[in-house]
């Protein structure tokens, strides 16, 4: 059972569970964004060019996203039935082998199949790590642990960009796969959550996704957890991904690269995750810190969409700032884990972030549907405002979970 006594931050940083979880998420994010970075080079080497680059690129991204939605459910259920460690071992093995194999594809069919498998593997990493760290640390300190996991992990996107700049796309996939397999060896030394071990001995339903829907308040709580994370993926999936088109509409004096925009955005996210996690601990509140960061993001997005005729570096600076404001991913995942009992905690903590990622499909559809009438700037403004206001409403209905004892079950 979690103790009320907090432990020093330095001790948390040296905690093997926190360290291995953070490095695992680092590799996870590396692999997650690598395809977006090497998409054009890899498809060109397979003989694909012109308009087919976009068509096939979207198809491969859809396959990866489909894998993550499938994996979010599969790994979540497995994490509550077999244990958190089973997910941390199985997920990293699957996506590491898939990315190694990805380096040797010779056609688009092989590429698509491996992006599906990689997506399934990638889906389990963060939620299982957050669940294990939340259950392993004292209740007064777990926010520090989850902030370090997310903050260190998100920097994997920066590393992916650097590797892609100096290695071929095939070499970049090999490096990702080897990093994952090397990290896998360290995970055999981790211990299972004692909180889960206690529940496993009881005659209680575990890993039942339908248990969430059997109770209306519980189902609403689950949906609220999903909705508070959507603005972050609006930032990455709409503003950063479509930055060349959006910034051109703003009158940028030079071309703005989506890859650079995503790089600066993730750099900001890494800073924001650590900052929000630590501030949440000092303020002794998860809800307050999420509300503050949502407000900052809304203001930042408004400023960004108002900047006219600026040089590209100014827009890149804004993506860094937006990344910081949207950097409440660690707190968001911690809230999702804390809202539910031990018998379905992994199911929730693993599936919720993957449903948030999946929301990008709906956001993109809305963004493109509104653009013909409102323009890119107006469309982005409307979609972003709806995301943030909905997140505020969802947050208001959740209970404050800072310092809660997580040793309870859902009936």
Structural account:
- The protein is mainly alpha-helical.
- The mean pLDDT is 89.
- Helix content is 77%, strand content 0%.
- It folds into two domains: 8-194, MFS general substrate transporter like domains (Growth Hormone, Chain: A), CATH 1.20.1250; 208-399 and 406-411, Growth Hormone, Chain: A (Up-down Bundle).
- It is globular and about 60 Å long.
- Helix 2 (16-45) runs antiparallel to helix 5 (108-122).
- It contains 19 helices and no strands.
- The chain has helices spanning 9-13, 16-45, 51-81, 84-102, 108-122, 125-136, 142-154, 156-166, 169-187, 194-200, 209-213, 216-227, 230-240, 243-249, 258-283, 286-304, 312-325, 329-338, 345-396.
Task: Give a quick precis of the structure.
The chain has 411 residues and is mostly helical. The protein has helices spanning 9-13, 16-45, 51-81, 84-102, 108-122, 125-136, 142-154, 156-166, 169-187, 194-200, 209-213, 216-227, 230-240, 243-249, 258-283, 286-304, 312-325, 329-338, 345-396. The model has no long low-confidence stretch (mean pLDDT 89).
């Amino acid at each position: 059972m979690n103790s009320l006594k907090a432990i020093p931050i330095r001790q948390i940083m040296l905690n093997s569970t926190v360290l291995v979880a953070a490095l695992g998420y680092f590799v996870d994010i590396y692999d997650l964004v690598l395809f977006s970075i090497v998409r054009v080079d890899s498809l060109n080497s397979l003989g694909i060019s012109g308009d087919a680059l976009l068509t096939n690129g979207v198809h491969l991204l859809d396959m990866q996203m489909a894998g993550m939605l499938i994996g979010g459910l599969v790994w979540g259920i497995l994490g509550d039935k077999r244990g958190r460690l089973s997910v941390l071992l199985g997920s990293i093995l699957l996506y590491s082998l898939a990315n190694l194999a990805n380096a040797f594809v010779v056609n688009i069919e092989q590429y698509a199949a491996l992006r599906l498998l990689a997506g399934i593997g990638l889906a389990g990493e963060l939620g299982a790590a957050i669940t294990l760290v939340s259950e392993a640390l004292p209740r007064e300190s777990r926010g520090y642990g989850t902030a370090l996991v997310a903050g260190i992990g998100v920097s994997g996107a920066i590393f992916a960009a650097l590797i892609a700049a100096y290695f071929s796309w095939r070499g970049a996939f090999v490096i990702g796969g080897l990093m994952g397999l090397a990290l896998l060896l360290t995970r055999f030394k981790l211990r299972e959550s004692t909180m889960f071990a206690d529940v496993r001995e009881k005659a209680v339903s575990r890993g039942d996704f339908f248990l969430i829907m059997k109770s209306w308040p519980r189902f609403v709580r689950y949906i609220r957890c999903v909705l508070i994370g959507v603005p972050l993926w609006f930032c990455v999936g709409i503003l950063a991904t479509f930055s060349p088109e959006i910034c051109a509409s703003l009158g940028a004096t030079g071309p703005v690269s989506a890859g650079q925009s995503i790089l600066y955005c993730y750099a900001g996210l890494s800073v924001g995750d650590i900052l929000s996690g630590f501030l949440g601990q000092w303020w002794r509140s998860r809800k307050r810190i999420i509300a503050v960061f949502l407000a900052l993001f809304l203001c930042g997005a408004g400023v960004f969409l108002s900047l006219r005729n600026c040089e590209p570096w100014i827009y890149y600076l804004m993506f860094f700032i937006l990344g910081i404001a949207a950097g409440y991913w660690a707190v968001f995942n911690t809230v999702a884990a804390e809202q539910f009992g031990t018998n379905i905690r992994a199911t929730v903590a693993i599936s919720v972030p993957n449903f948030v990622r999946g929301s990008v499909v709906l956001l993109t559809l809305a963004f493109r549907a509104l653009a013909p009438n409102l323009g890119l700037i107006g469309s982005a403004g409307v979609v972003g405002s709806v995301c943030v206001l909905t997140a505020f409403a969802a947050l208001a209905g959740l209970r404050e979970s800072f310092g809660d004892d997580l040793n309870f079950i859902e009936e």
